[in-house]
Design brief:
2 strands; 1% strand; two-stranded antiparallel sheet; mainly alpha
């Protein structure tokens, strides 16, 4: 009896500790099923909405992973929006003039990494207020992309969906999970890779140590400055990949301000996911679903103002932040500049 009672006690304890998360999850699941039942009357429609949800969540989860890496090492990245926008612009230009999608993706990720380097220089070396540093990144990206953008440029196409053999023929699941573009597949892989690396490797342990107690980490020989630089630059590359997705796989072109607040939504997703990659992916899928439903409701001709339908993702952001910020604990040294004694 003792062997069977212990797991039950652990499960009960977990449910008590996370009761509001469970309640919120049940409410969200019920809302999703109700929305699908209202907007769709066949399996094809449901498949299309879920596929769109996964695609819409791709830049959000990549941006959230950027925030996770940065804050886990102690640097708040408000500049995700700017990093995504700059990378989207640079990747678009690279595709226009080089005509190579993979090279353009690499260049876009490199642009995001460079913006990450700039943020790391301001936050780590100059010990500037990290919120101000991120705001500088955002303003810089909006100004540069708006000034240098040339209307009328045409690209050499965009990434086409890749079908993974017989897996794509599985009803419902197949078209949703196994018929996507390469950046979408890469984003899913990165979620699990980063989760493993962050919580089960030495690098991840050092990253979390630097974000929780940098002085103690410095005492045992961990280079706090180096770890923060590396993580913020890697995070910038992930945000750059999100920007490249928008122009090379999602839309296929560039427009001024096309990130449309996705970088800020990524921060809410990171908080909702409790600074973990897998948790953030779940939150990103939820936000992606709101984008998909926004489009579906417009197609269905729902008699609601388009401004209200377009505001659904941001209304969800307010609800998420109101419900989760007080119950989530950020890394203790997040946002605190470190000065070596």
């Amino acid at each position: 009896m003792e062997l069977t009672a212990e797991p039950r006690r652990e499960t009960t304890s977990w449910l008590i500790r996370n009761k509001w998360t469970v309640v919120f999850g049940v409410i969200i699941a019920g809302t999703i099923f109700a929305a699908l039942d209202f907007s769709c009357n066949n399996l094809t429609c449901v498949t299309a909405v879920l596929s769109s949800s996964l695609r819409q969540s791709t830049p959000l989860i990549l941006g959230a992973l950027c925030g996770v890496i940065g804050e886990r090492s102690g640097v708040v990245n408000i500049g995700i929006e700017g990093q995504m926008l700059m990378a989207a612009f640079v990747a678009f230009l690279a595709n226009v003039y080089l005509g190579n999608l993979w090279m353009a993706t690499l260049i876009g990720a490199s642009a995001g990494a460079f913006m990450g380097l700039l943020l790391a220089w301001m936050a780590v070396s100059l010990r500037m207020d990290q919120i101000i540093g991120g705001t500088v990144i955002n303003i810089l990206a909006i100004g540069i992309t708006g000034y240098f953008y040339i209307p009328g440029l045409t690209t050499q196409g965009k990434f086409a969906p890749i079908t993974l053999g017989p897996l794509a023929d599985i009803p419902l699941i197949g078209p949703v999970l196994f018929r996507n573009g390469p950046i979408t597949y890469l984003a899913i892989i990165l979620v699990f890779v980063l989760h493993y690396v962050l919580f089960y490797t030495r690098w991840g342990l050092r990253t979390r140590a630097v974000g929780e107690h940098p002085r103690a980490a410095d005492t045992v020989g961990i280079n706090v400055y180096k770890m923060r630089y590396i993580n913020v630059i890697l995070g910038g590359a992930l945000a750059g990949l999100a920007g490249a997705f928008l122009t090379l796989e999602g839309v296929g072109t560039f427009e001024r301000g096309m990130t449309n607040g996705r970088g800020f939504l990524a921060l809410a997703i990171m908080i909702m996911g409790k600074w973990t990659p897998i948790g953030s992916w779940g939150a990103a899928l939820l936000f992606g679903f709101t984008y998909a439903m926004q489009t579906q409701l417009q197609f269905k001709g729902v008699n609601l103002p388009p401004q209200f339908i377009g505001s659904l993702p941001y209304i969800l952001t307010i609800l998420v932040l109101a419900g989760f910020v007080g119950r989530s604990r950020a890394p203790a040294a997040s946002g605190v500049p470190y000065e070596k004694e």
